[in-house]
Amino acid sequence: MLSRVAKAMNPSPMDPRLLGVFMGLLALGLVMVYSANLPLPSSNSTAVFWKQMRGHPTHLAIGLTAFVILLRVPTDWWQRLSGLVFAVGIGLLLAVALIKLVGGSAVMKDGAVRAIPLGIMTLQPAELMKLFALIFASAYAVRRHDRMRNDLLRGLAPIGALMLVVIFLLLYQPDLGSTIVITLTVAAVLFLGGMSMRVVIPLVVIMVGFFALMVYITPWRLMRLVSYLSPCDPGHAQTSGYQLCGALIAFGHGGLFGSGLGTGIAKMGHLPLPHTDFIFAVIGEELGFVGVTMVLIAFAYLIRRAMEIGRLAMSQERLFAGLVAQGIGVWIGLQTFIHAGVNTGLLPTKGLTLPFISHGGSSMLAVCMAMGLLMRIDMENRAGLRGRTESPPPAAKRAQTVGRRSWA
Questions:
Q1: Residues 278-305: what's their mean pLDDT?
Q2: Hey, how many other C-beta atoms are within 10 angstroms of the C-beta on 69?
Q3: Range of the domain at 71
Q4: 192, part of any domain
């Protein structure tokens, strides 16, 4: 009994390359968060380091603890608990809505309420909901696979109604960036799980129209879209285009090889939020085009491996695990694309963290949990392959038995 439990907890060794890329991105984030805040303190106090890090080492320690814990949890458990996990996520979003409803403008930060205060730290449920919604959608696609193909209304109406609740709670904060990431990730998981293209195309059109409407009816979002076309024009450079203009200047200053760690000037009051929403611009200035390219290559490898892990799990008839792995790849890829696109002017300005690198405790916790789950799926895949090679299939066993009996 104990041996079976131990085998379930540790099915196979981890992929050293995937682990190395993951740890490398975390290490880069530790360095870049420190560098992004390096010029701010001027005293020689022993607390200077921690002021510059803004608690990032603590966030990293919590995230890595969650990563280790999820490595020990069998994937099947998440499938059984998917409904409870999703309910917890909705409950946390409701708590944020209640805080905003009761506290009003007194609890708002930058015009929004997105976090639950927990003493000296805060928790942003939207970040955790990215993983919780992905797990729930994967389990839902497995459970309703036939209905999603044959009866689209009964198959998609339940999760559609639940997602409308999530979208409403996120937009009430408001948090359009997380809404986009969660909605597109869930849609991708349902598509990979068998949702018909007859539903995918209208759904994408509806989502694009909805998000366009949200931008149009919100003045500051509309101004960001207008200034996106010419952020450094005199009329935009000091208003809605200020962030993007500062990021573009940072990339231009970095050149091919960068100005060097800690020597960037954009973060000295010229680039807002250099340790979170615009940390990619800080990387571009201090590590240059070469550094930015290496970071994108690392993310591309991680995303590709997530898709490969998902395909292998599906080939072993583990549909839930395969959908979760590929969903994680979609989520990380989508958020990385949006963050990099915003920083380089490819997309209109929208605040989203760069996974594994940006400062933010809730974001770090969510992506580390996702990596723990992804590597757990990979470990189970490896254990499944090893089991196939160690024991012949039933037909081969019967053939061997018959051969021995006839020889005797």
A1: 95
A2: 12
A3: 12-41+52-382
A4: yes
In sequence order, what E strands does 299-350 have? none
Cβ pair 366, 358 in contact under 8 A: no
Alpha helices in 218-260, H assignment, sequence order: 219-228, 242-254
Does some domain include residue 389? no
The pLDDT tens digits of the residues spanning 40-98 come to: 544 445 455 666 677 889 999 999 999 999 999 999 999 999 999 999 999 999 999 99
CA–CA distances in Å: residue 134 to residues 91, 183, 219, 299, 320: 16, 10, 31, 19, 11
For 390-405, give one letter per residue: b (16+ CB within 10 A) or e.
Answer: eeeeeeeeeeeeeeee
Residue of 71, 125, 137 whose CA lies nearest to 98: 125
CA–CA gap between residue 396 and residue 296 (Å, rounded): 46
Q: What is the number of domains present in the chain?
A: 1
For residue 349, pLDDT beyond 60: yes
Q: How far is CA 227 from CA 216, 277, 352, in A?
A: 14, 18, 19
List, as own/partner pairs, every contact residues 153-162 make where C-beta atoms lie below 8 angstroms and the sequence separation is at least 24, other chains included.
156/190, 156/195, 156/199, 159/186, 159/190, 162/86, 162/90, 162/136
d(Cα 140, Cα 145) in Å, to the nearest integer?
A: 8
Q: Assess if residue 378 is contained within a domain.
A: yes
Distance (Å, whole) CA 50 – CA 218: 38
Contact indicator for 14, 72 with CB cutoff of 8 Å: no
User: The pTM is what?
Assistant: 0.86
Helices of type H across 173-218: 176-192, 197-217
- CA dist 24 and 380 (Å) reads 24
